[in-house]
Specification:
Length: about 260
């Protein structure tokens, strides 16, 4: 795989649920070391696209390339094996467990049929240190005592722990205040700077412009455009989201699809 080759490349992706055609010939490229923001209005098809990448759904047609080679992803374990991890909005953390046990939830390290607490604590600490996380007092804190930003940090660190190559973040700042949002955005940027490919789903255009390298905009199940952040403005991204077009960028009138997506 050359440096110019996307880590993930989708070509002509289609997905329907019964008579509802949700994704229409969608193309998407995601590069290592970059944050790709996936934006679109409610019903644009973002969730369906992400769930297809993660193996929760199977695409009906199209090409799924990972590291330049065709990949077959029909369940989450296959996506995980490629190095794809997803941090959903609900975070899936257990309040009654500490940070270490949450990071290893379902993938616990064992030694002589007992939990290897020393090794898990070591790996959790190293992962958080590698991400320059300094907001946690201890990896043995219960998650119930953490702030929203700290919880998001633990969920992201858990995704990175498993030798990930790509991390998908679903609205990571949606329920956070200003200071915590800044902490999480800095962490998102560090993920890319450490060489990971990041897909960031967000409705907050200020966050997108601040942290993303390129923006992929879905409109009614079509990819209106995927452009570098340096080539667009806040208002032009909003136009792409709401109309599928901004100036010369976006869906041509003759290519527009009438209908909606999920």
């Amino acid at each position: 795989m050359t440096p110019d080759t996307p880590l993930l490349q989708l070509k002509g992706i289609n997905k329907s649920f019964g008579p509802v055609h949700v994704l229409h010939d969608v193309d998407l490229s995601v590069w290592s070391g970059q944050v790709t923001a996936l934006v679109g209005d409610n019903g644009a098809g973002k969730s369906t696209l992400i769930k297809g990448i993660a193996g929760i759904y199977s695409f009906d047609s199209g090409e799924y390339l990972f590291e330049g080679r065709p990949a077959s992803v029909s369940d989450p374990k296959q996506a995980n094996a490629l190095g794809i991890e997803v941090v959903y909005q609900d975070l899936a953390l257990c309040d009654n467990l500490d940070v270490v046990h949450n990071m290893f939830l379902g993938r616990e390290e064992t030694r002589f049929a007992t939990l290897n607490e020393i090794e898990m604590e070591k790996r959790a600490t190293e992962t958080l240190k590698g991400l320059s996380v300094r907001t946690l007092k201890s990896v043995r804190q219960q998650v119930s005592s953490l702030s929203g930003g700290q919880r998001q940090t633990v969920a992201i660190a858990r995704a990175v722990l498993w030798n990930s190559k790509m991390v998908i973040l679903d609205e990571p700042t949606a329920a956070l205040g200003v200071a915590q949002t800044e902490q999480v955005l800095n962490l998102v940027r560090r993920l890319a700077d450490n060489g990971l490919a990041v897909i960031l789903i967000s409705h907050n255009m200020n966050d997108v412009i601040q942290v993303a390298d390129n923006i992929a905009c879905l409109y009614l199940g079509q990819m209106a455009a995927q452009v570098k952040v340096s080539e667009v403005t806040h208002s032009s991204v909003v136009e792409l989201i709401t109309t599928g077009r901004s100036g010369e960028i976006g869906i041509q009138v003759e290519d527009a699809i009438v209908g909606g997506a999920a």
